Amino acid sequence: MTMSVNTNLSAINAYNNLNATSNQMNSTVAELSSGLQIQTAAQDASGYVISQGLNVESLGLGQAIQNGQNGVSVLQIAEGAMNQQVSILQRMNQLATQAANSGAMSTSSYTAVQAEFSQLQSQLDQIASSTSFGTTQLLNGNYTGTFQIGAYSSGTDQVTVTIAGTSTGAMGIAPASVSIGTTATQAQAAMSAVQAAISYVSSAEAQVAAVQNQIQAVISNDTISQQNVQSAYSTLVDANMAQAMTAYSSQQVLMQAGVAMLGQAQQLPSLILKLIP
């Protein structure tokens, strides 16, 4: 054994080992206190990059789910209003059919039927002009909306919907052009116009419902995808607490032993004095 006063290799080795143990222990303490095994890129550069990508996707999917739910709300409002309009149109068709039975109609009957028919036309226009999501009108014929229902900007993550206008003018039954009148011929013309309007609104409502179902299906898929992404993120980033505690216990023992051995190693040069007579 080489004995030297100026250079104590045993102490240097003990110090280096103690320093390495201290660094490991600090990392384990940070892991246990934060619950994360990757907090900075310095700990795991590739893992950090992957985790950030997963986090972007998870947060994006979460917002996409919210966007989709808002989109469904928009379409449900439009669909509900259209459904009410169809009910009104059915009543208008009933009135026109009644008026077409001229053999049982009188002048006063035509007047009464026309009054209700006109009132229903006004209701249709009121629904078309007042149906909105916030301040955005839905049934005035100008609505086109794009819903971001995915985590990225690709076209497959977006749905665009256009809602047809449902005013009496758009349906072809504006008061200026369609009325019950006072004859069977006028009533029959009103019947045809109202029945065409029913077909028009029903088709528009069906298109809205189809997009609504599409968005709801995407929301379900986004929810499952988000769960899977969060699981992958957790596996990569979250600390295994049991494993970390086991490592911490071992490091505590090594730390105590290292401190003790460094103290012993620092005493080795004093043994040289025993060689001096």
Query: What's the gyration radius in Å?
Result: 39 Å
Shape: rod-shaped
Number of strands: 4
Largest sheet: 2 strands, antiparallel
What's the architecture of the largest domain, going by CATH? Up-down Bundle
What does this entry look like structurally?
By secondary structure, the chain is mainly alpha-helical. Helix content is 69%, strand content 5%. The protein has helices spanning 9-34, 45-100, 107-130, 168-171, 184-237, 241-266, and strands spanning 132-133, 136-137, 144-148, 158-162. Strands 1-2 form a two-stranded antiparallel sheet. The radius of gyration is 39 Å and the shape is rod-shaped. The mean pLDDT is 89.
Write the layout of secondary structure elements.
Layout: H1 9-34, H2 45-100, H3 107-130, E1 132-133, E2 136-137, E3 144-148, E4 158-162, H4 168-171, H5 184-237, H6 241-266
Antiparallel strand pairs: 1-2, 3-4
Helix pairs in contact: 1-6, 2-3, 2-5
Summarize the structure.
Helix content is 69%, strand content 5%. It is mostly helical and 277 residues long.
